[in-house]
Known about the structure:
single chain, about 170 residues, mainly alpha, two-stranded antiparallel ribbon
Amino acid sequence: MLRSLLERHPDLVPEVEELAQAVVTDVDAEAIADEVEHAVLDLDLEDLNARAGRTSWGYIEPTEAAWELLGEALDPFLGDMKRHIELGFEPAAVGACQGIVLGLYRCRDKASDGVFGWAEDFPAETAGHAVATLARGGAAKHRRRWRLPRVFVDQVPDWADLIERAARR
């Protein structure tokens, strides 16, 4: 429907493209942080028990199962960030990375008796991976390393060194 409208009114194409890019690049880091936090904290021991233990092909350690579950919960967020990198939408990619890091930072000391009890290093290691992916992706695709703003890094003081190291990887 939109395509046929634009075929009849080609003068609208630039404006529609601009609006589409604005929608795609409009990223709310706080909203992403909330979604990340809920995605990983909503996992519980029932999820872990369903994944860990004896299977028809062997045995899956609870730690391995916890990392898999948490990784799967974060995959959509990391995928969105990678798409923004590929498309060259730096503000959107940086905002997505900020949301991922902030959401994980909020989770770092929570629910140690749940899935995180089996993957205590997951929040920090995954945040470092997200920052390194942002930096490497910007360098590889766009000839310079994209970084999280210093003002944001100050919001996650316990991870400031981790973020700086990951950005240099």
